[in-house]
Write a structure and sequence with these properties.
With about 210 residues, this protein is an alpha+beta fold. It folds into two domains: about 5-85 and about 200-214, Glutaredoxin; about 95-200, Up-down Bundle (Glutathione S-transferase Yfyf (Class Pi), Chain A, domain 2), CATH 1.20.1050.10. It has nine helices and four strands, in the order βαβαββααααααα. The structure holds glutathione. Glutathione binds near residues 16, 43 and 58.
Length: about 210
Amino acid sequence: MQKHSAIQFWGAGTMRTFRPLWAAEEMGLQYTLHPIGPRTGETQTNEYTQLNPKQKVPYMQDGAFGLSESVAISRYLIQRYGSDQTLSPMQSLESSAKEDEWVAYVYGELDETSLYVMRRHGDLAHIYGESPAAMVAAKAYAQKHLAVCAEYLQDKDFLLNQRLGLADIMLVSCLDWAVHYQFELPESLQCYRQLHRQRAAYRRAYAVNYPKTL
Ligand SMILES: N[C@@H](CCC(=O)N[C@@H](CS)C(=O)NCC(=O)O)C(=O)O
């Protein structure tokens, strides 16, 4: 276990908070987790707002360096602490661009445009309003893009370079979210998801992020 006890994470219990925890576990990083929840009032305190004015989780500090956004935090950790043995930063402009392509696609189309829209108008309808039409459209939109991922992953275990990377962390976390919302995944995505859920680091991060579900 590497010693990086200066790393602190805030936030637990959602797919966004899971991503940096999974990356950290893959790299054997030591960290302190403040498992605050998004709608518990804990993100609204003065102390937390000073750290992250967005009042959202996840948030990370590595020493004096603070960062929000699940993608940015996960990428920072990989760039700073990754290695060939664990998660490694992309080595060329082209591979980095390919990773960006997948990460932007999964985050933009599956997370924000589909699953989070379903969350806003489903679980969080008391805040954002009921919208059955938005729910139906978001689900259909997710299915379209899950089919694109499924086709690509017919003959692959990883999105890029035959090894786990940020793009996989993004996609697996969205697949977990989709399954939680009762999506029936195409077969190749079911196989891909099951493969990665067996990883020891995934399981450790899951136990830390969702202690109440175990
Ligand atoms: N784009 C951000 C989204 C963060 C986000 O929306 N987090 C939710 C929990 S999943 C949150 O903190 N919600 C509280 C709120 O909106 O008040 C990321 O990927 O980290």
